[in-house]
Amino acid sequence: MTRAEKEQQIAEISEVLANYDVVYLADTSELDAETTSLLRRECFKNDISVRVVKNTLLRIAIERAEGKNFGPLTETLKGQTSLMTSSVGNVPAKLIKDFRKKSKSERPILKGAYIEEACFIGNDQLEALANIKSKEELLGEIIGLLQSPAKNVISALKSGGNTIAGLVKTLQEREA
Predict the structure, then answer these.
(1) Which of 90, 70, 75 is nearest to 134 (CA)?
(2) Quick one: CA torsion of 40, 81, 87, 65, rounded to 10 degrees?
(3) What kind and span of H or E run contains 163?
(4) pLDDT tens across 96-153, in order?
(5) Are 149 and 133 in contact (CB under 8 A)?
(6) Which end of the chain is more exposed for a tag (fewer CB within 10 A), N or C?
(7) What is the pTM of this model?
(8) Residues forming beta bridges with residue 51, ordered by sequence position
(9) Contact 20, 89 (CB under 8 A)
(10) If you write DSSP's letter for every residue of 88-107 in order, what string do you get?
């Protein structure tokens, strides 16, 4: 690879890092061609971009990244590295967990992840990352919690209205 090609690769990786707030680094070595194809298809279905990158080029791209502190992720750059990017924080972690179950393999192994200014290092963080709620899930829960008291009040007013109307009708019938 020539120096110009390397610079082009670094620029492409830097652009990817700048455009995504969710970056996962995984070890996909020892996966055969068929399993790798399955992983790529699953990533495509889940709107996850995946590419194998050279560690040296990724390290330089991380160092050049402006406005983001990938800090400890550079320590994980050993062996084969696959760069996974997504717009939703927990989707790649869920995909890795599900893929391991389906393929009955311990690969891919999570090296590290960068999710909106937070770094997670090591395969032991996979469970925590999979359980992180996305912005959409959190907003849905908040809206549900806010709607619940309002629904209770409306329900009470409706049922109370029927009760009051029933009482008034009963009192009128007694007087007559």
Answers:
(1) 90
(2) -150
(3) helix 135-175
(4) 999 999 888 888 999 999 998 889 999 999 998 988 887 777 888 888 878 777 676 6
(5) no
(6) C
(7) 0.76
(8) 83
(9) no
(10) STTHHHHHHHHHHHHHTS-P
